[in-house]
Amino acid sequence: MKYLPLFLLTSERPALVAGAGRVARRKAEFVLRAGQRVRMVAPGPFPAALHWARARGMLEYRQGNVEEADLEGVGLVFAATDDREVNARLARWARQRGLHVNVADRPEEGTFIVPSVLDRDPVLVAVSTGGTSPVLARRLRARLESLIPSAYGRLARLLDAYRERARARIPDEAARRRFWEALIDGPVSELVFAGQEARARLEIETALERAQGARPEGEVYLVGAGPGDPDLLTFRALRLMQQADVVVYDRLVSKPILEMTRQDAELYYVGKQKDDHAVPQEGINQMLVDLARQGKRVLRLKGGDPFVFGRGGEEIETLAEHGIPFQVVPGITAASGCAAYAGIPLTHRDYAQSCIFVTGHLKDGSLDLNWEALVQPRQTVVFYMGLTGIGVISERLIAHGMSPDMPAALVEQGTTPNQRVLIGTVATLPEIVHRAEVRAPTLTIVGEVVRLHEKLEWYQAEEHRPGTVFSSH
Amino acid sequence: MQRQATGKVFLVGAGPGDPGLLTMRARERIEQADVVVYDRLVGEAILELIPQGTTRIAAGKACGKHSMRQEEINELLVSLAFRGRRVVRLKGGDPFVFGRGSEEALYLRRHGIPFEVVPGVTAALACTAYAGIPLTHRGLSRAVHLVTGHFRDDQPLRIDWQRLADPEATLVIYMGLGNLETLARGLIDAGLPAETPAAAIERGTTLDQQVVRAPLEQLPARVQAALLRPPVLVVIGRTVAFSERLDWFVPEAPPEAWQDEIGAHTAR
Question: pTM (2 decimals)?
Answer without folding.
Answer: 0.79
